[in-house]
Amino acid sequence: MTISSGSQVLIVAFRVDASLTIGTGHVMRCLTLADALRERGAECHFLCREHPGHLIEAIRSRGFQVDTLPMSPESMAPEEVSPLAHAAWLGASWQEDARQSRAILEGLAPDWLVVDHYALDRRWEETVLPPGCRLLVIDDLADREHGCDVLLDQNLGRQAEDYVGLVSEHCTRLIGPHYALLRPEFARLRETSLDRRATPRLKQLLITMGGIDKDNATGAVLDALRQFQLPQDCRISVVMGGNAPWLAQVKDQAAMMPWPTEVAVNVTDMAERMARADLAIGAAGSTSWERCCLGLPTLVVVLAENQWNGAKALSATGAAILVGEVADISTRLPPVLRKSASPASLAMLDQATSAVTDGRGSDHVVEAMVLLTQDGANDG
Question: Is the pTM of this model over 0.85?
Answer without folding.
Answer: yes
